[in-house]
Amino acid sequence: MDLLNWQSRLQAFADERAWLPYLNPKNLVMAMSVEAAELVECYQWCPPETALALTQEEPGRSQVADEMADVLMYLLHLARETGIDLEAACEAKLAKNALKYPATGRARPPEGPHP
After folding, report:
1. CB–CB of 71/39 below 8 Å?
2. What angle, rounded to 10 degrees, do the helices at 25-43 and 60-82 form?
3. Spatial CA neighbour of 63 closest among 77, 46, 80
4. CB 3.0-4.6 Å disulfide test: which of 14, 66, 96, 113 passes with 19?
5. Is 68 helix (H, G, I), strand (E, B) or coil?
6. All domains of the chain, ordered by start, with CATH?
7. Residue 34 — φ and ψ, nearest 5°?
8. What average pLDDT score do residues 77-88 get?
9. CA angle 100, 102, 108 (to 5 degrees)
10. Contact 3/76 with Cβ under 8 angstroms?
């Protein structure tokens, strides 16, 4: 995924609709949290087995895809507005997480409750 291309496309889309004045960090974070809550709603009260199967068939697959896209598009707008390079931020965060959570040699998490 070319993040810069998507940011340009989203900016043009918003500009064509005169939305740019509203796309400030505060509004974007609030909108993204609403969309994240709508993604949560897709899975709310699902047992784990149902949650895993939700995206295997329609309409669940489309509903989850739409909410994921909304969250990502707001995040891309936010990155553009704040001047944060998401690719660099992800690389840096992954490096921090590698130090914080060293590899255990296990390919899958153990069964049962997780921290």
Report:
1. yes
2. 160
3. 46
4. 14
5. helix
6. 3-84 (1.10.287.1080)
7. -65, -45
8. 97
9. 120
10. yes
Vertex 66, ends 37 and 28: CA angle to 5°?
Answer: 55
Whole-angstrom CA distances from 51 to 23, 58, 115 are 33, 13, 20
Q: Which amino acid is at 82?
A: T
pTM of the model: 0.86
Q: Answer for the pair 81, 29: CB distance below 8 angstroms, yes or no.
A: no
For 63-76, how does the pLDDT look when each residue is reduced to its tens digit (9 = 90+)? 999 999 999 999 99
> Cβ(55)–Cβ(23) under 8 Å?
no
Quick check: 35 and 74 in contact, CB under 8 A? Answer: yes
